[in-house]
Design goal:
It is built from 7 helices and 15 strands. It starts with a strand and ends with a strand. By secondary structure, it is an alpha/beta fold. The protein has a single domain, classed as Ribonuclease Z/Hydroxyacylglutathione hydrolase-like (Metallo-beta-lactamase, Chain A), CATH 3.60.15. The chain binds zinc ion. Zinc ion binds next to α2.
Length: about 230
């Protein structure tokens, strides 16, 4: 679905099974995919990209809003189709994406367990193996305010994870929010507390997002909302 002159929202998966909404941004010379989903959905990505008139091989940038598996897992499969694509993330998030650090919420959960049962240990080993399997190098590390290309600005919004970014499309006033924002009852709300590393930071980041006075926002797990 075209949401601006240079932006398209994709829908992957079914509503009941938890659909998610990656975004494509094009400036003619570059094509960015914002968040890559799970590898199992690679074919659905290819179809959704083609439905908007592009080819997966045209992707020049895979931008990751943050480290979680439902955003990162599909990168390797996508890079097979678009070998020239560079991976972009915030500098604080990069070590979790490239595998030098364990997913922060998994590490936090392990730290809080105290004594681990055999079942816990097996579960942790499995999740560690999944994290290692999806690790990819980050080619471009951005900071708050960096323009990636065209009118697309990286906005650092820590909380859900420490190096979470949104992408603000300045010309259309669209905030691509990743998991830093959600839609609840037609309103913009902050990250889901169940899955958020630092909820107070997440709430402060929501205020930062609102400070941009976006015209529309895209929540990765909620889709599009018009705000003004
Ligand atoms: Zn997510």
């Amino acid at each position: 679905m075209r949401i601006a002159d240079n932006a398209y929202m994709l829908k992957i998966g079914q509503e009941e099974g938890g659909a998610y909404y990656p975004v494509l941004v094009s400036d003619g010379a570059n094509l960015a995919l914002i968040d890559a989903g799970y590898k199992e959905h690679n074919e659905a990505f290819v179809k959704a990209i083609e439905a908007e008139g592009f080819k997966a091989r045209d992707i020049t940038h895979i931008i990751l809003t943050h480290q979680d598996g439902d955003h990162v897992d599909g990168v390797k499969a996508m890079k097979k189709l678009a070998p020239g694509a560079v991976v972009v993330a915030h500098e604080e998030e990069a070590p979790y994406i490239d595998g030098s650090k364990l997913n922060i919420k998994l590490q936090d959960w392990i730290d809080k367990q105290g004594t681990l049962t055999d079942e816990d240990k097996a579960d942790i080993d499995e999740r560690k193996a999944e994290s290692a399997a999806r690790a990819v190098p980050v080619d471009i590390k951005v900071k708050d305010g960096n323009v990636i290309f065209g009118d697309m600005e990286a906005v650092h919004v820590p909380g859900h994870t420490p190096g979470h970014i949104c992408l603000y499309l300045r010309n259309s006033g669209i905030m691509v929010g990743g998991d830093a924002l959600n839609i609840d009852g037609g309103k913009l709300v902050g990250p889901n507390p169940v899955y958020t590393y630092d909820q107070a930071q997440g709430a402060a980041s929501l205020e930062k997002i609102k400070g941009y006075n976006p015209k529309m926002a895209v929540a990765y797990h909620g889709g599009l909302i018009t705000l003004r």
